[in-house]
Design a protein that fits this description.
The structure holds two protein chains of two kinds. By secondary structure, chain A is mostly helical. Helices cover 70% and strands 0% of the residues of chain A. Chain B has twelve helices and six strands. The radius of gyration of chain B is 30 Å and the shape is elongated. Classes of the chains: A mainly alpha, B alpha+beta.
Chain lengths: 448, 319
């Protein structure tokens, strides 16, 4: 195949097949470094905060949260949408970029998929505990219950969410695990301890890399990618319908599904960049996650950030043009009301900040990308906060207008989910190959 | 752990080990053109077009996946229809509670279609590839999941060809190692136990033939199989020859011979044992000494010349 000279190699450093194996198995086969221990300890402390605040919520009740009339959805649903959105980049990278034959995805897809799974774990916590009696969460499932055959209501987008999120989680897990099998087999065949030999052998399912298996494997991976693509779009579409189907000014718009999907990809890439920049630095993977990769991801951020920005403006114009006074008020209130600071933070972080990526310098300077990736994460959290809280805190009846501020328990749970997320990620980085070895071996001689 | 080796047990294989995917594909094409049947190939990564070269047909898993997807759609629809229309119709906000609800079912139908397709297909894939948790792997070469590509030929399928033919063909195609297992392959023999250091020893193995054999279906001795037992007298003569031509290293002078590609820690010791310590000595090798060294140390015939040790040693001397 012809390859233009200006294309950069996908993996630098002139790696051989065995170099790839050595480099990527190193963290698994050696004792964790001190930076790993430091990060893991901080994450584990935050995880304790999560356990503590959730236990307190269950013990004392939902009154420990500041959600109340008329802001029934506060930080919890904001965080739920935030985490689900973050998960989307993983599936996007591994599925959509596979369909588009983008080879640069290969050294980042493993960690991005891991991120998806951990983010969905974090997301699931919020609606479950928001139910109040978390031990009755199974009532959301379509099973006959003690009151006779009163079933779930299939008209409700909240029920669609139950199906969408659980399907998303399980399909992502399967996709991730399938991708891991050949690499687990590689670790198994290098194992020097009995325990490692046993456990990696157990999960490798007897993989031996035969050409017959690889042929089937590639077909299965392609089809999983093919069905994951509409799946990932459907998940955030359904999440957006939680809002869009309610008759609340600021929510009741048809623009929500595409706008939420673009926002999810935007925030997900923000988080992928944050994680990969840390991982690449700590684990010395600069040859695998090159500046080419960073540049490609920043371009996605630029594109989706602009789509999100366009959606903000469209939403505003439609509200102004609608002639519907409540809708107009909701948007005026967002911009100039008591939560204006949150609105302008969102506008700056999501619409203005990513525009720096028009510059080549910004796209190729890791420390700068890291800062912008954090800014994007903050901006996307505020987007959900603005949508939820500003629309709820002033309803149709001025006598019921309230202000909402999170309680320490809500803040603690949010902080705690970061603990859960990073604890999972650190364990993943210690026990599983962070980069897909078998795929990277196919591209070490290739260019972008 | 239970054994997986349904396919491989009691077969006698000739294995060509490659270090490059293009060479492997070329070898497969050449061998198949000659009419040699290839049992399978084992690679650490998916090799593009290898299945075509091997003549494998595309898997039917896609059809199975489609059927699973259809089953998922049907389940989604019947689940929602039974619950909300047949068994317990609910009127919410004056919305229809008959088939007019269908639009509300679409997300459910869609999600279950995806769920059933994904799980159904993956389960079928595992079943088809005989993969299950805890099964024991059937490896022909311990590096086939790391950096070596293995081409396996079942001797019983190729009775028209002598082993020597197959081996020389594989070597011409650039196999870096030939394994010719005279004993029937059995996974219980291939237990690469935990105590084996994975890298150092294997590098060494790669440069020596691991198993020599006399084949049953042919009397021809190939150069791979020659493992002449030298008499003490012959050995002494050869050592003298080596000493005369290469000269003796000065006392205490020793180069790191491992820097020459093809020399591992073990082989370095062997070389030291016959008085070869320096790059200078290696660079003076002549065809006669090379032959003598190969015979004394049972080294892979022709490898010293092919890897150009003399050239390598000259370069290393000048460093």
């Amino acid at each position: 195949m012809y390859q233009a000279e200006i294309r950069q190699p996908l993996v630098t450093g002139g790696k051989t097949y065995s170099d790839v194996t050595e480099d990527i198995c190193r963290p698994i086969e050696n004792k964790p470094t001190s930076s790993w221990w430091l990060g893991f300890t901080i994450a584990a402390i935050c995880l304790f905060v999560l356990v503590g605040t959730l236990a307190w919520t269950v013990w004392e009740g939902l009154g420990t949260w500041n959600v109340n009339k008329s802001v029934m959805w506060g930080w919890d649903i904001t965080n739920f949408v935030f985490w689900v959105g973050i998960g989307h980049a993983g599936t996007l990278i591994s599925a959509i970029l596979l369909l588009f034959r983008q080879k640069w995805r290969m050294s980042i897809n493993r960690s991005a998929e891991a991120m998806t799974i951990f983010a969905v774990f974090c997301a699931a916590i919020f609606p479950l505990f928001h139910m109040g009696r978390v031990w009755l969460a199974f009532w959301a499932l379509p099973i006959p219950n003690a009151f006779g055959s009163l079933w779930v209501n299939f008209n409700s987008p909240l029920l669609w969410d139950v199906f969408a999120i659980s399907t998303y989680l399980s399909v992502s897990l399967v996709f991730w695990y399938l991708g891991l099998i050949p690499d687990i087999a590689t670790v198994r065949d290098r194992a020097t301890t009995k325990a490692r030999k046993f456990w990696y052998g157990f999960f490798a399912m007897g993989w031996n890399g035969s050409a017959k298996s690889w042929g089937r494997y590639e077909v299965v991976a392609l089809i999983l990618a093919g069905i994951s693509t509409p799946l990932v779009l459907s998940v955030h579409t359904i999440v957006s319908m939680d809002f869009a189907t309610s008759v609340i000014p600021g929510w009741h718009t048809t623009i929500f599904p595409p706008y939420f999907v673009a926002g999810a990809i935007f925030s997900g890439f923000g988080m992928v960049l944050t994680l990969l920049l840390i991982a690449r630095h700590v684990m010395n993977y600069q040859d695998y996650i090159t500046t080419e990769h960073l540049e490609a991801m920043t371009k996605v951020i630029l594109l989706t950030g602009s789509i999100v920005g366009l959606a903000y403006i469209t939403e505003f114009v439609i509200a102004a043009y609608s002639g519907y006074e409540y809708e107009q008020y909701a948007f005026a209130n967002r911009m100039f009301g008591p939560y204006a600071w949150a609105y302008w933070t969102m506008m700056f972080c999501n619409l203005v900040a990513p525009q720096v990526f028009w510059s080549k310098w910004a796209r190729t300077t890791p420390w700068f990308i890291f800062i912008i990736s954090i800014v994007v994460n903050i901006g996307m959290w505020f987007e959900r906060f603005v949508i939820i809280v500003t629309s709820l805190h002033r309803d149709f009846l001025p006598s019921s207008w309230v202000m909402y501020h999170a309680s320490w328990v809500e803040v603690g749970i949010f902080l705690g989910t970061f603990g859960l997320f990073f604890t999972c990620f650190f364990l993943f980085a210690k026990f599983l190959p962070v980069i897909n070895m078998s795929e990277v071996k196919t591209i070490i001689k290739d260019k972008e | 752990m239970i054994d997986k080796s349904i396919l491989l047990d009691n077969k006698k294989f000739t294995l060509g080990v490659f270090d490059d995917s293009d060479k492997l594909i070329h070898a497969v094409e050449t061998l198949r053109k000659k009419g040699i049947k290839i049992f399978d190939c084992y690679t650490p990564f998916p090799v593009h077009n290898l299945d075509k070269a091997l003549g494998y047909e595309r898997t039917n898993l896609t059809i199975g996946a489609f059927l699973c997807g259809m089953l998922g759609s049907l389940s989604g629809f019947s689940l929602a229809y039974y619950m909300n229309v047949v068994d317990w119709p609910m009127i919410v906000g004056g919305k229809p509670n008959d088939l007019g609800m269908f639009t509300s079912f679409i997300p459910i139908i869609f999600e279950l279609t995806i769920l059933f397709t994904a799980f159904g297909m993956v389960i079928m894939f595992f079943a088809r590839s005989r993969m299950i948790h805890g099964i024991k792997e059937d490896l022909l070469n311990v590096r086939q999941t790391n950096d070596k590509l293995v081409l396996a030929i079942d001797n019983a399928e190729n009775v028209d060809f002598t082993n020597a033919d197959i081996i020389s063909l594989l070597k011409n195609e650039g196999a870096v190692e030939i394994q010719n297992n005279s004993e029937a392959f059995n996974t219980s023999h291939s237990d690469f136990s935990a105590s084996k250091p994975p890298v150092a020893q294997l590098v060494d193995n790669a440069s020596t033939i691991t198993k020599e054999s006399t084949t049953e279906n042919t009397e021809i001795k190939t150069e791979v199989e020659t493992k002449k037992v030298l008499s003490a007298e012959e050995k002494g003569l050869k050592l003298d020859l080596i000493k005369n031509i290469l000269g003796e290293a000065a006392e205490g002078v020793k180069d790191d011979l491992k820097l020459i590609s093809g020399v591992g820690p073990k082989y370095e010791e062997t070389l030291n044992g016959i008085g070869i310590f320096t790059f200078e000595q290696v660079s003076k090798m002549t065809p006669a000494t090379i032959e003598a060294i190969e015979e004394i140390t049972n080294y892979f015939p022709g490898r010293i010349e092919r890897d150009d040790w003399i050239g390598q040693a000259k370069k290393l001397m000048n460093k």
